[in-house]
């Protein structure tokens, strides 16, 4: 669908927020690098459908909580200040890349605004929220896969981060966010902890396949 068709088909819809900014002109989709086929994280079901199971802590495994900037393992969050290289460009944090993925294929100019809009990860989050009406329509089906891709790049491009992740052994990794019940566990620890689960899958693959940095 062209940009003109997109706006023509939606101009009469009351669902669109008329106060939201207009997107930059649509550009041809850019080719993206595929993650190595040996990375098994892509085999899991990638959906934010609420029917997926919530996080259940295993009593037999040690547990590592991460979230607070001033506590250990903040490096496991997307907000840690570790740049990520993707398709020849530098993203200030993993969060910048993850938010850019929402627009990269259909609206690369929006993705570029997110990448260059400031080093703070919250700035990337806020910029993506401004353009939420132009997020790729299948985002809820691919969001976990895109998180895995961003994490793979982050941890394979930094030797210290890779070691930190591998040194956690078989510990359960839990994003202890009181607000996020999808990527974290939420205030009552009943959330799905998808970020922690993705990190555990990455850890398994880094260990099994001995992926070098």
From TrEMBL:
Residues 1-13 have a biased composition (Low complexity). Residues 1-61 are annotated as: Disordered. Coiled coil: none annotated. Residues 31-43 have a biased composition (Basic and acidic residues). Residues 44-59 have a biased composition (Polar residues). Residues 65-206 form the NADAR domain. This is DUF1768-domain-containing protein. It comes from Coniophora puteana (strain RWD-64-598) (Brown rot fungus).
